[in-house]
Description:
- The chain is built from four helices and 14 strands.
- With 247 residues, the chain is an alpha+beta fold.
Amino acid sequence: MYAITMKRGILLAAFGSGSSQGESTLRRFDAQVRKAFPDVSVRWAFTSMLMRERLASERKKSDSVHKALKKMAFEKFTHVAVQPVHVIPGLEYGDIVSDADELRAGQKANITLAAADRMYAARVASLAPVAVQAVSLAGDSGSVTVETMLDLEGDMTGLRPGSSATVKIFTDHRKNAVVVPYEAVCQRGEQEYVFTLKNGRAVQNPVTTGYLLERVIEVRSGLEGGETVILSPSDELENGAKLEVQP
C-alpha cells in the first residue's frame, strides 16, 4: 500500500495593478488569505500581459495563470484552487468563463481522423478545472483551451495511437430534432436538398442542415419528420421524377 501525500495550493488570479495603492490592496488581500489558510501555499498570477511586461521591466517576477499552473504541476501540487480577484469581470475574464461554461461531462462528441474519412462516437468524460487562454507576445488574446478527456463509444476499428484527429463536442441539445442519414443530403449549387418519396414520385426539398452526428445529420428546416427519404440520389434525379420502389 502506498501513502499519497496531498499538496494543496491557492492561485490568486488578478488583472494586475499599476499603482502603489492597488499593489497595497493586493498585498493586504494576500495576507488575509495566508492567515485564513496557514498550511496552504499561496501563489499569484496576473491576466494582463501589459502588467506582466511592466513588472518584468522592473525586474519583478510574475506569471500568467497558465504558466503558474504549469509550475505548480511541476512542483507536484495535487490540489489547486484558482480564485479570480478581478474587481470588475472584464472581457478577458468573461470570454474564458463563457467558453468553459458551455462544456459539460457527458456531452456527446464526434472524432474525425485526419487520415481517414471516418467518424467515431464519444462522450466527454472529464474536464480540466481551468480554461487557459493563449496570449501572444503583443498582448493579443487567442483561443481558449480546456483540456478534455473523452470516452470512445461503439466500433473503434481503425483508430491508432498518435493519430491526428478533429473533435467536435456538442454543447447544445435539441429535443425532437429531425435527422436523416447523411447520405440523404445532396448539394446542388449553394443549396442543400433532401429527396423524399411521395405517391411514387421524387420530391426535391430544399433544407437547412445543422449538427452532423456519427451517422445522421440534423435538418433544421425543410422537413417535418416522418418522410421517406432517398439515399445517395443521383445527379440526374429531378423533382417529380417517377420512381419504382423495389422491396
